[in-house]
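Risk register update: the risk of archive-format incompatibility is retired. Evidence:
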Amino acid sequence: MNKLVPTRIAAYLAAVFIAGAAAGVAGGYQWGRTSVFKPGGPRPRDMATHMIDRYTKELTLSPEQVQKVEPLVQEAVQTVRQLHRDNFKQTDAIMKGCNEKIVELLDPTQKEKFRLMEERRKQWMKDRGAEGQRGRPPGPPPDGSRPPGHPPGDGASDPAKAIRLPEPKR
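Archived output:
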């Protein structure tokens, strides 16, 4: 058997593994953001109250039971909040590392396009209240528009929809 064949197989398997891991991280991050704190559902700060009210009603808890359940729920909600913050930081670090490796593979024109894509993404994240900042609720704007590079309806073919950012000082 040719020596190149096992090397190619190993390289393809490694590439598939890395692509799967990246997709898993991105998908898990998005699923976590949307499934735990859905718009229309309880806000994180109201989650404990919502849970206690629901348990009290549906389980017909006595006042003594409510007093015992309440601190347990409060503690769980605080733990989930911290986990959410930590997960966001870890995901951000992973994606920054990935982006650094991608930039190394690009030519100068592609690097500039990539830089602009990242600036638009950061602005979009900031505008939608991500990265720990308070803003409007997560999700696309009410009019359904999205910045270029964010499907569906990315508007990439319409320059009027593109976010114009100042060039960095060199």
